[in-house]
Amino acid sequence: MTNSPKGFTLNNADSCRVKFARRFLRSLIEIKTRQTNYNNNLSSSPSSSSEIRRRSERIKLKAYSSMAHAVGPRKAWTRALLLKLHNRAKRHRFRTRKRSSLAMVLKKKRVFRVKNHANFYKPAAERGNYSVLNSDEKTEKLRELVPGGKAMDICSLLEETAHFIKCLAMQVQVMHEIADQLSN
Amino acid sequence: MQPCSREMQGMSSLLNASSSQISLEDLQQQQSQSSSSIQGSQIHQIHASHYEPPPSHDDFLEQMLSTLGPPSWADLGGQPGKVPWDTTTTVPDGNGPNNKPRDDETPDNVPAFPFDESANLASKFRNHQISGGCGSKSAAAAAAAMMLQHQLMLARGGGAAGAGETGLVPMPLSLSNGEFDRSQNDVVDGSSSDVTLRFKHCTMDSALDLWPALVRRRTSFTILRHAIDFGGSMAAQQNYGASGPAMNQTQAPSGSSGAQPAQPRPRVRARRGQATDPHSIAERLRRERIAERMKALQELVPNANKTDKASMLDEIIDYVKFLQLQVKVLSMSRLGGAAAVAPLVADMSPEGNGGDCIQANSNGGTHGRTSNGNTNNNQTASSNDTMTVTEHQVAKLMEEDMGSAMQYLQGKGLCLMPISLATAISTATCHTRNPMINNNHHHPPIGSNGEGPSSPSMSVLTVQSATTGNGAAAADGSVKDAASVSQPW
């Protein structure tokens, strides 16, 4: 683990990593405790594939959420990611608490995608050659990958993608090191 | 009286001086254009004023003003585009140079093309003068004088004219600018006389200097616009007075920058060959922004040596997918316990190409992180199972077509490599990985990495860790066990 002097001179990247690491570890612990509680209550085998899958899914989601929280809401993709996770969590909670379906529908409707009307609906030729990227199939794929990408034009999409890639790489590295540490 | 007479003298001298040259050009080119009728009318009015004894300053001006209107052209006794220059001896067809087709590029037409714009602009200028309340006859006289200068200078020789008049025009305008703006009845006679005098002075001397300058149509258009637009910056135009070769460069950009509506807006001096209207500026800015973002992305993504935008986007997409995949794999590996690995592996094998890729990675990942001595065999066995499935697939494909086999492997994030290279890599990365680990818990179960077949997962693992830990481009995906698939090349 890179030993960055915690608390002294932290640059932006380092503080991000530290924040992310802290949150992620905390959420791991929380999942572990939840797991043990669950196991104690229900005494189901923890190594069934579905259970494992669910747990890994949860861990993954926690990783993303801690990443988004660590970066903060100053980037569009973090905001979109946090919103998505928030809604998802709410939906889960609704499902367990058996709220009315109407409420669920309403909550779902809140997650609507704002299209950039200025650019989206213009014909491609009108926007110049770089604007063909707005409706390119590759751009569409990129939009799906980057959270919140569907509501951005190509310019901000590229910017968000760059930041997203940086954060993802950092996330992978930290998780990698944590895993190494844990499994030793 | 005096100003008027001086004006007349100026104009007549102009006529005489330029007429010879005009005649030459007329002889060379004879075509007719309707737009030149304006030109013709103006020349006609010069002509008329030349030949009619001006009884008084006011009367002369009234005459000029009266002949300015378009309806009067018909009276000039010509078909549109024809001017009764015939009465004069020296200039048979005053529209000769004016009748050139509007052609920018050919040097033959250089003298002619500015006429159209100059005529229009001059008329506009005139209208501006008249409508703008500068109804004073002195003002109109100065305006007319300036128009004459434009036309006659242009008639003399386009290049020289374009250059010369620009040197000219700012000067008188700078003089009269304030006066025009301030009041309408100011005596501009003095300035107009100065104009004519200066004009006389400049044409002879500077004409030859500026002759070689290549004037573009737009440039002269620009120059006249600058001349007409009082709000424009005169200082910028002073540059036009430079020598011939310098004129070329300054005129081209100024021409491009002048292609704006004549409003008193701060003008952006564009780079050479670029337009400056707001839409193209915005477009250009946008394109530049996108380009710099793509460059930033290129630095982030490995293997970003593609110059093509489309392939660059592909790379970016693949890299993002790869990173998300790694997060998924790492989150699975946290579960710990060897028993968890087998169902995971079995679970993921039916998945698509990406899943297969995970397979190889997860084997390596889980082995690396969760393996104990006991469970190693189990893991190796399971990984071997999945590997053999892939191997069979690849072998089948290779029978048909090597290319498709390669593509299949590539889709899984695997590649073929000779056994020797694979072992070399695994040993190398194993050694480099050592410092990263605090204790050597892993190593005994995995054993020496010299033997290929016993450590397929290890080779996978080491390459993966090398990729993520050191950022080395050892492999884009994982390295397939050389022994099982590849043939020694």
From TrEMBL, chain A:
It is found in: Nucleus. One of its GO terms (biological process) is regulation of DNA-templated transcription. Its main location: nucleus. CDD domains: bHLH_AtIBH1_like. InterPro entries: bHLH_AtIBH1-like, IBH1-like, IBH1_N. The keyword Magnesium does not apply. Keywords: Nucleus, Transcription, Transcription regulation. Residues 15-88 form the IBH1-like N-terminal domain. One of its GO terms (cellular component) is nucleus. This is IBH1-like N-terminal domain-containing protein. It comes from Morus notabilis.
From TrEMBL, chain B:
One of its GO terms (biological process) is root hair cell development. One of its GO terms (cellular component) is nucleus. Keywords: DNA-binding, Nucleus, Transcription, Transcription regulation. Residues 12-46, 466-489 have a biased composition (Low complexity). Residues 86-98, 241-257, 451-465 have a biased composition (Polar residues). The keyword Transcription applies. GO terms for molecular function: DNA-binding transcription factor activity, RNA polymerase II-specific; protein dimerization activity; RNA polymerase II cis-regulatory region sequence-specific DNA binding. PROSITE patterns: BHLH (PS50888). Signal peptide: none annotated. It holds the Pfam family HLH. InterPro entries: bHLH_dom, HLH_DNA-bd_sf, IND-like. Residues 274-323 form the BHLH domain. Residues 1-108, 241-279, 359-386, 438-489 are annotated as: Disordered. It is found in: Nucleus. Its main location: nucleus. This is BHLH domain-containing protein. It comes from Morus notabilis. The lineage of its organism: Eukaryota, Viridiplantae, Streptophyta, Embryophyta, Tracheophyta.
